[in-house]
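User:
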Amino acid sequence: VQLVESGGGLVQAGGSLRLSCAASGSTFSINAMGWYRRNPGNHRVLVAVITGDGGVTDYADSVKGRFSISKDNTKNTMYLQMNSLKPEDTAMYYCNADVGRGRDRRDYWGQGTQVTVSS
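Assistant: Predicted structure:
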């Protein structure tokens, strides 16, 4: 599975951005997809996750009510709509896919897209 993010950029506090993650390859094997961001301690932390069929979503407490994750399976693309952005949302955002079953199960990552929120 290959993942390509887009949509990052520079925005003022209170503004909005929409990130996209286009998946290709064995997309039928995707169990769930998510967005992560790298925190100041240089760890990737979960922002939002969605099941493969798009039926279930979950969010980090810090983004609940502001961010919305969605998936268009006809386009093999996942989105993250980010509203009411805050300077603390500034980070590199990564797309993740949980793929496969049993011993073949593994994570795939995109290259990341930078989001910068100015105060």
